[in-house]
Write a structure and sequence with these properties.
By secondary structure, the chain is mainly alpha-helical. It is built from 8 helices and 4 strands, in the order αααββββααααα. The chain has a two-stranded antiparallel ribbon. A two-stranded antiparallel ribbon has the order 2-3. The longest helix is centred in the last third of the chain and has 21 residues, at about 90-110.
Length: about 140
Amino acid sequence: MAPWAADHLADLADLEAQAPQALAGATLQHGDLYPFNIMLHDQRVFVVDWPHAWIGAPHCDTVTLLSSASLSGADPQQLAERHPLTRAADKEQIDVLLAAHSGFLLRIVASAGMGADQNLVEMMTALGLASLRWLRRRR
């Protein structure tokens, strides 16, 4: 993964620079929607831990959640092609989000100091690389 990212660093930076425009919208986003923030109880679904909520394009939380699903062996591209929010999104908008998501997480990991919680660092690395792998397959 690192050689591909290094070879495409300028492209990744260009994609990430488009994030403010590509991710604009009027939909409430969780901003940290991963399986560990979703609780199932009886016939109900609860989404918890909302400190990163923001307003953006309708597909944003769906893309990050699908990306994280790849860590369990699911193919995020197949899921995205079937989901109405990602199916309706412009291809480039999804690529921009994947570049911004992976860049955000991997920058945090790269700057984590010695005292950083290693479980958190490992989780952020896995999530960042999952988005980067999906983006690589799409490009």
